[in-house]
Amino acid sequence: MCRRSAxxxxxxxxxxxxxxxxxxxxxxxSWTGPVxxxxxxxxxxxxxxxxxxxxxASTVLQLTPLGGWLLALVLRxxxxxxxxxxxxxxxxxxxxVPAPPPPAASTGLFGWRRAVLTDPASxxxxxxxxxxxPVAIVSLALGVGCYVCxxxxxxxxxxxEHRPDHWRAILVRCGVGLLLLLLASWxxxxxxxxxxxxxxxxxxPNLARxxxxxxxxxxxxxxxxxxxxxxxxxxxxxDGAQARLIGVGMHLTMVGELIAAEAPPEQLRAAVDxxxxxxxxxxxxxxxxxxxIHPPVLDRGLDAALATVAAGSAIPVAVxxxxxxxxxxxxxxxxxxxxxxxLTNANxxxxxxxxxxxxxxxDDVLRLRVRDDGHGGAQLRPGGGLAGLAERxxxxxxxxxxxxxxxGPTTVIVEIPCPRTS
Amino acid sequence: xxxxIAEDSVILREGLAQLLAxxxxxVLAAVVDAPALLEAVTSKQPDVAIVDIRxxxxxxxxxxxxxxxxxxxxxxxxxLIFSQYVETAFVAELLAGGSDGVGYLLKERVVRLDEFIDxxxxxxxxxxxxxxxxxxxxxGRSRHRDQLAELTPRERAVLGLMAQGRTNTAIAAxxxxxxxxxxxxxxxxxxxFDLAPSEADHRRVLAVLRYLxx
Lengths: 422, 214
Known about the structure:
Chain A is α+β, with helices and mostly antiparallel strands.
């Protein structure tokens, strides 16, 4: 049985397949590690030698215009090979490192050369290729060597032709072999951790840069969202309450006209009724708009606000809130509107007969969980309501997770960091 | 008057049509968007068209575009822009083709039905009807602040009403002064602005508006 869950992280949708099947006796990861180490050593030797020779040649050629071109080619090759290495690590080590941003867009051959020569990611890929050669040798020696030596020493006595003379020597060899085998899995894990670290730091995107790009993108998104919200409010006011109030004015003018024409009282009464209805509608529209901007009940806390939302839901909804302290107003507002939207979805699309809303603040993370027993199948569609929600949540470094298999139930989780403000 | 209305809000469209009908005017068509407006005006040849600025599908300035096109292609039909807000850029665009048979009123002016219908009559007859709010904005934006400051309060009031498109008789009635007094104020204003005095009401409106916009 497999369960799919989609996570939005750093703008990319990651679909995790959570396996609930029993584990195989020989886990995949127990053999992929040594295979990886054995496989990459020759690759590393070739890569390092190639790049080293070409790099040296380009250094010598720096005296001529050819040097720059060769160096650019070396860098390009290094980052290309780095890409292959990331793919291999993803396959065998299950280490998924995103690609660094490509060199800046350029026009013409000279522009391309400048872009490659000034691309920090390519230089880091070159550094990886050069550093990796000695590391690969040590890694293979330690990671696989422990297993090999352990087995050899342990089997020395029964298998070897020239038996040692003294039984004590045999015991020592066997003991060392056993120790090596016991240590081998730990050594392999440590070595692989080193490999992963190297790939992450030198072949992945620069973390600060990644963070910067993320912040830039979410900032832009926040500005666009704020602008869209203001436009929506303007449109709602213009087409809604403002037009209705002018309508009320028109009805009152009509009342005046009827009085002047000495119209029968029932006609007058009807005109006044119409004016009153129009006024009631205008006030209701303004109230809805105000609630859409900032619901007054939110001032009394997220739990009170969510209870109000749940009370207004067509399907019965149970609310559970564990809030040892109050989150910041911005976080409260985002969580509140997320809950509103998710409950609206549950009411409209899921065919659910009941649901739960849970909001828990623990370990500086605010976690909203909205669940319904409908028919499931909810997913992120570009331009859809859930995608919009995920975007808004991302602006405050939060994330949105959907678990909605066909047939239900649907669970949507919104997590937002909520640090204590000093 | 024979009138065509282009207004996308059903409340306002029907309310306006009812009020005009109560006063005995003929609402020939009440349409929702610009193409329907152009079609209705071409086929029915009304005296005046009342046009909302924001119309479907874009809800931006479709009505204004249609109004400008109407003024150009059918100069015999007066056009009254009917809007919920005053935007000086729109006013300037509307007046660029001249101020004859053009009006711009805020929607809430309908509540004073007599004045609204008076404005409609002016526009239908080839005159001008600008909202007091439009005139205030023109004053505020004018580069001739110094000359405006030279006017006496009474002259300013007369100028404002003149810019709205009112006749001397109407100005006299509004300010409760004699027509001769109004004529004197008008002459003073033209002298202070260094404009050639003009007799016809609508030519004088144009002169004043050009002056304020220049």
